[in-house]
Amino acid sequence: MPFARRFASSLDMYRKVPVDLLEGTKRGSILSYAAIFTMVTLFLLETKSYLSSGDMVTDVALDTNPEMKVRINFNITMMDLACDYCVVDLVSKYGTTQNITSHVTKYSLDAAGVRARYKGRNQQQNDIILSDSLVENTIEELHENGEDAISLDPRTFEFSKDEFDFLFVDFYASWCSHCKQLAPTWEVLAEVMEDAAQDRVSQYHLDRHDYDQEEYKEAVSAEKPVVIAKIDCVEHRDLCMQNLIQAYPTLRLYVYGDMLGDYRGDRTVLEMVHWLIEREKENIERGDVKGEHADEAARDKLDVDETRDEMVKTPERITNSHHKSPEQEEWRDKMKRQRTRQAAATEWKEEEHPGCQISGFLWVDRVPGNFHIQARSNHHDIAAHMTNVSHEVHHLSFGAPGVMNAIERKDYVFPEGFEESLHPMNGNVYVNQNEHEAFHHYMKVVTTQFDDPYAPKASTAQAGTYAYQILSSSQLSYYRNDIVPEAKFSYDPSPIAVHHRLSSKKHWYDYLTSLMAIIGGTFTVIGMLENTINKVVRKKRR
User: Fold this and answer.
1) In the structure, what pLDDT confidence band is assigned to residue 201 with cuts at 50, 70 and 90?
2) Which of 108, 169, 326, 471 sits between 20 and 30 A of 66, alpha carbons compared?
3) Are 171 and 231 contacting, i.e. CB atoms less than 8 angstroms apart?
4) CA dihedral in degrees (140, 144, 149, 152; nearest 10)?
5) Which of 164, 274, 170 is nearest to 222 (CA)?
6) 280 three-class SS
7) Alpha carbons 137 and 207: distance in angstroms, whole number
8) Residue 118 reports pLDDT greater than 60
């Protein structure tokens, strides 16, 4: 074994150089202090990292989210669209979905933005009877003996509001299918109310329309005559715009010159007459406080037939007549005042523009799609040029509500600005300045996963929380004149997902390895630096 002993005694990885052969320098002393400072600093930082729970790590990979559906939460105010016509539709890759009504609530807003106490669901409008089935004659047949429903223009409309205590007007469009369906019923209603004005019951009506005689007597028992009129909104577009007619037909009652409200019930003669009688009972005493209608005796002496005959004259005939009656002179003065009112009516009046606040949530498939808010009615044709879908987004997000609270409560790590990326459109206002335009919004929805730091590692993927970041953009879209604008919110799930997690905590042997690397690496690097400096200095001395 002498060979083994000689080999063992010759193995020495840490051979020493005699001290008397070493030479100390000022430069070496400075570098030694620098090496010690570097090693201590790195030692402290490595120890802190070892004792901490870990740093945030962000991974990007294909989306493996197992959720088949995602929830869309929204709270949006339509600034100039009444709740009566405001609906929410959902369109996905698989077609139009209609089962969204149970989770959407609508609140009517006045011009000041004050929310009404009443709230309604986003259900389809209640079905109503669109015309009277007992009226079998066509509108052409009913017009053979003349028109009983008076056609109005801008001037005669103002005159009629001044002259008649009760004026019931059908704002219609010649192309409107619902209007064409209602036209015969409206003409018969005019005949019935004319009978009420004449205080007689026409056997002709009873035979032709097969009404029950007792009910018909009740129908024509109105205390005051109601003038039935109509306005063609295609021919008199500006007039309908000034009166904020958004859908056809709009059946509007004027009492003593003021708008009372729109009729929304069944469009049968008896139902409309009964509604008019109830409105008369509620408003009959208003004439006492109206200066123009204060003299009750004068109103009773008003010859309705003469007034109606005067109305059907063309404005030119009345204006050019050489023998003007006092009524005609008064009408001309009223027409001058009416032109002034028309000029003022072009200005925006806040009180005439109510809105609708829509809030709720939708469950949608995780495929591209959109939901849009627009004006629609089962009983009307919407006027495209009167549809304004300006809106304010109070809140719009994807995923479970309160997900940010869950993330903070479980001490998940997330990058700065993450919360804002969940709802980047909150607080934005989108105003349409012109007709036939609307804002469309496009949202790229990115799944973001967080691991539960307290869950076992084997179940980390299942125990995590999902949030949805939104990359949004908006643009103004333009529509054809015959298409109703809509506020559109398109979404597209991204195939790439983001994963925020904490880095794994180091093992004790990893920590020791790091310390040795710090000490050895620092000593070696500083030594190499010193040797390099020493060689450069010697070379210069030579």
Assistant:
1) very low
2) 471
3) yes
4) 90
5) 274
6) helix
7) 13
8) no
Q: Which one of 113-122, 198-207, 374-383 scores highest in mean pLDDT?
A: 374-383
Nearest to 312 by CA among 227, 239, 250, 236: 227
Average pLDDT, the chain: 76
In this prediction, residues 93-108 reach a mean pLDDT of 68
Spatial distance between the Cα atoms of 500 and 507, rounded to a whole number of angstroms:
22
| CA dihedral over 222, 227, 233, 239, signed as positive or negative | negative
Average pLDDT estimate for 83-106: 74
Enter the tokens of residue 408: 């903070």
Distance, in Å, from the CA atom of 300 to the CA atom of 310, rounded to the nearest integer, reads 18
pLDDT score at 437: 92
Cβ-contact 50, 379 below 8 angstroms: no
- Token digits of residue 19: 């001290």
Lowest mean pLDDT among 78-92, 98-112, 288-302, 378-392: 288-302
- pLDDT of 14 > 50? The answer is yes
DSSP string covering 485-529, please? -EEEEEEEE-SEEEEEEEPPPPPHHHHHHHHHHHHHHHHHHHHHH
For the chain, which domains are there? 17-53+506-541 (no CATH), 61-110+356-502 (no CATH), 147-350 (3.40.30.10)
Q: Over the stretch 285-315, which tens digit does the pLDDT of each residue have?
A: 655 445 444 444 444 434 444 544 444 443 3
* Residue 351 per-residue DSSP state: G
Alpha helices in 174-219 (DSSP H): 177-198, 203-209, 213-219
Q: pTM for the whole thing?
A: 0.56
Over range 91-97, report the average pLDDT: 70
Would you call 387 helix, strand, or coil by DSSP? Answer: coil
- Between these two residues, 331 and 134, which has the higher pLDDT value? 134
Q: Are the C-beta atoms of residues 85 and 377 closer than 8 Å to each other?
A: yes
Task: Note the pLDDT of residue 403.
Answer: 79
Task: Give CA separation, 375 vs 68, 82, 530, in Å.
Answer: 31, 8, 81
- pLDDT of 124 higher than 60: no
Amino acid letter for position 84: D
Looking at residue 290, the DSSP 8-state letter turns out to be -
Q: Angle between the 508-541 and 26-51 helix axes, to the nearest 10 degrees?
A: 160
Phi, psi of 208, deg, nearest 5: -75, -35
Asked whether the predicted pLDDT for residue 482 surpasses 70, the reply is yes
Q: What angle do CA 216, 218, 223 make, to 5 degrees?
A: 125
Contact 247, 85 (CB under 8 A): yes
**Terminal Cα-to-Cα distance of the chain (whole angstroms):** 53
Residue 501: CB partners within 8 Å, gap ≥ 6? 56, 57, 59, 413, 450, 451
Joined tokens for residue 310: 């005067």
- Stretch (H or E) spanning 325: none
Residue pair 134/189 in contact (Cβ under 8 Å)? The answer is no
